[in-house]
Design a protein that fits this description.
Blueprint: H1 6-14, H2 21-44, H3 46-54, H4 82-108, H5 113-136, H6 142-156, H7 159-170, H8 176-183, H9 185-201, H10 208-227, E1 247-249, E2 257-260, E3 265-270, E4 273-274, H11 282-289, H12 300-304, H13 309-338, H14 342-349, H15 364-385, H16 390-420, H17 432-458, H18 464-481, H19 483-494
Antiparallel strand pairs: 1-2, 2-3, 3-4
Helix pairs in contact: 2-5, 2-7, 2-9, 2-10, 3-9, 3-13, 3-14, 4-6, 4-17, 5-6, 5-7, 5-10, 7-17, 8-16, 9-10, 9-14, 13-14, 13-16, 13-17, 13-18, 15-16, 15-18, 15-19, 16-17, 17-18
């Protein structure tokens, strides 16, 4: 059995005597990984909040008494092309994140998952805090902030393949739609907490808007190092069923055996052990005596050949383009159209992050396609009527956020985990991190492109109408890319 972390060994002695061991650890791992990725998103959010004070209408501020209209702005974002510069910050981070994601999946399958995740969290905390230190050190070099964003993106790319692989190791395929739907609310909660924490200091000392989240994720990295069991084998728990094949006890129905659901054959019982229907040959007996071979990590091109990986990856490219444009630019948009201050804009933007989705149907592509079909007109409605009143803005933000984030959340969690343990892999679960990295890495390329295009399209004139046209078009393309998988799902259901 693999050696468990020090903190887990202590918990094992104290807590597991009072509960079912498998149930206890599954709940424990789900909660710890939930908090872990909450911290990842919490540390990503401050830059979207602080953008609103990098460049602002200084003459409208209270107690402003300077003749320089950019005196309150933070150089180098005090120029007319400030939105392009802010967009370059997003692009630097997200492009580095996307590139790092492809490598992170391969590395995560080949090293200690707990060490990989905890080290990534600590480095993410350091880079987040360094961005805020630019305020305290009075740094006005764009190259400094770009460098911090690039290293931050590389560090943050460690998180998603690692946590999805960890949860996939503990939960079987039959429960993933529900489990990942509930668990993936860490994205929304992390974004909300990140906005609220950053909003506390954004108008007074925006450096703390980065330093505090950085310290939080750094501390959580230490907790993960001490307390996270990444595999059931580490603590002597039974592994999950990845393919929906399990043994059903038939003795309660008057039969003396078990049924293998995959073959629908009843296996007779001798005493308390399952007896085979046929006598094994000497070769079979010798084969079972041999130690199990370690599953080999799958190659990049091998993962691409798994049915559905390419379609969902391309779909996520455009879906994440839309979601991350809202993530990084929504506070700025709200401040411009509704004329709220930086703190109010940050607080209101959290409404977009409320909501999540749990897929009970088992038809993930169909669920995503329906939500994408409704999110396109919903974005147009929000852009047209969102500034009517605060109440209307909140309601439309909730609806838009649910429809935009739903497909993105479902593809990056349950879909990635299901494809990473696809039946074509013959129970080689080591593909999970690579498949997750390919899908989310491709999506992150779109996430990098969206905020960059937003800065270029909106420009100094704040032309947000064209930005929404871009988002609606990306949403429709995302839906069309899923049609092949949707038809396959529907045909399989009919047959």
């Amino acid at each position: 059995m693999m050696r468990s972390p020090l903190g887990v060994r202590i918990i094992d002695r104290v807590c597991c005597k009072c509960f079912n061991k498998d149930t206890w650890y599954r709940g424990y791992v789900l909660l710890l990984t939930f908090l872990c990725y909450c911290c990842y998103h919490l540390s990503r959010k401050p830059v979207s909040v602080v953008k609103t004070v990098f460049h602002q209408n200084c003459s409208a501020l209270p107690d402003y008494n300077s003749s320089d209209p950019t005196a309150c702005d933070w150089a180098p974002f005090n120029h007319p092309n400030y939105q392009e510069l802010e967009g370059s910050l997003d692009y630097a981070y997200l492009f580095a994140y996307a590139v790092g994601m492809f490598f992170a999946g391969h590395i995560a399958e080949r090293v200690d998952l707990r060490l990989f995740l905890s080290l990534g969290m600590m480095l993410s905390g350091i880079t987040t805090a360094l961005f805020g230190m630019g305020r305290l050190w009075n740094i006005h070099l764009l190259s400094y902030y770009l460098a911090v964003q690039i290293f931050g993106g590389l560090a943050q790319s460690s998180g998603w393949p690692a946590v999805v692989t960890c949860v996939g190791n503990w939960f079987g395929k039959g429960h993933r739609g529900l489990v990942f739907g509930v668990w993936n609310s860490h994205t929304s909660i992390g974004n909300i907490l990140g906005s609220l924490i950053a909003g506390v200091w954004v108008s007074t000392n925006w450096g703390l808007s980065f330093i505090v989240p950085g310290l939080i994720i750094l501390a959580m990295g230490l907790v993960v190092f001490l307390l996270l069991p990444t595999d059931p084998k580490e603590v002597g728990c039974s592994p999950p069923d990845h393919h929906g094949q399990h043994i059903v006890d038939h003795r309660t129905h008057g039969e003396t055996g078990y049924e293998d659901v995959s073959t629908h054959q009843v296996v007779p019982v001798v005493g308390e052990e399952i007896a085979p229907l046929m006598t094994d040959s000497d070769e079979d007996v010798e084969e079972r005596k041999r130690p199990p071979r370690e599953a080999e990590a799958i190659s990049f091109f091998g993962a691409l050949r798994i049915p559905g990986v390419v379609e969902f990856s391309l779909c996520l490219f455009f879906s994440k383009l839309v979601a991350y444009t809202f993530l990084y630019w929504l506070p700025s948009y709200i401040k411009y159209v509704a004329h709220y201050d930086a703190t109010q804009s940050a607080d209101l933007s959290t409404m977009f992050d409320v909501g999540g989705i749990a897929d009970y149907s088992g038809k993930s592509a169909s669920t995503c396609a329906v939500m994408l079909a409704f999110s396109a007109p919903m974005m147009f409605i929000y852009q047209t009527y969102g500034n009517v009143s605060l109440r209307v803005n909140i309601v439309l933000l909730l609806m838009t956020g649910f429809l935009v984030n739903g497909p993105y959340a479902l593809i990056t969690t349950a879909v990635s985990a299901d494809l990473g343990t696809h039946k074509s892999l013959k129970e080689n679960s080591k593909a999970l991190a690579t498949v997750t990295a390919i899908i989310d890495g491709t999506g992150s390329m779109g996430a990098a492109l969206g905020p960059l295009l937003t800065g270029l399209i909106s420009g100094p004139s704040n032309n947000w109408n064209h930005v929404f046209y871009m988002l609606i078009a990306a949403d429709i393309i995302s839906m069309l890319l899923l049609m092949r998988v949707v038809f396959r799902e529907l045909c399989c259901r009919q047959t």
